[in-house]
Amino acid sequence: MNEEVTSTRAKKNELWEWTRALVIAIILAFLIRTFLFAPFIVEGESMETTLHNNEKLVVNKAIYYMEDPKPGDIIVFHAEKTRDYIKRVIAVAGDTVEVKNDQLFINGKLVEEPYLAQHKEEAKKQGELVFTHDFPLVKIPANHIFVMGDNRLNSTDSRIIGPVAVSTVVGRAEFTFWPIGDIRMTR
Questions:
Q1: Catalytic residue among 7, 61, 81, 87
Q2: What is the pLDDT of residue 124?
Q3: Does the annotation count 87 as an active-site position?
Q4: Which residue range or ranges hold the Peptidase S26 domain (predicted)?
């Protein structure tokens, strides 16, 4: 009889341990996804050739609790109630942005954009005279950033939707993890 009671207790104890471990794992996964990291699927071609349609990447949600977005960061933000966009930060609050003759100027200074080199070559081959069309000087208001896709001819970004409120930023893209053969850092 004692062996039977001991065996039943051991099974209950093991069941309790498994249940507790599973609950802790679920809580940790929820906290990590909510506050630290989240997966994101690239939809569309606005970030080509840096990021590709249907690539999966990890977004660092915690980084902007410690620092503000910086030019060059690739971020995910809430663009619409049901849709997030992924774009590159071009300028931050207080900066001025302007494009003249396919060249980006921040605060009146020319900014090199090496990530656009391949696009600019392809655009010229296809007969496009410019890759980024001119737009007038824009001053970025407080608590906002100016974002653009790397595929400037096919991107809905701050040139159309205006500066983006920092409060809508989900996080910074850190690395792609799918497809497996294309795993890489996004910065």
A1: 87
A2: 78
A3: yes
A4: 15-178
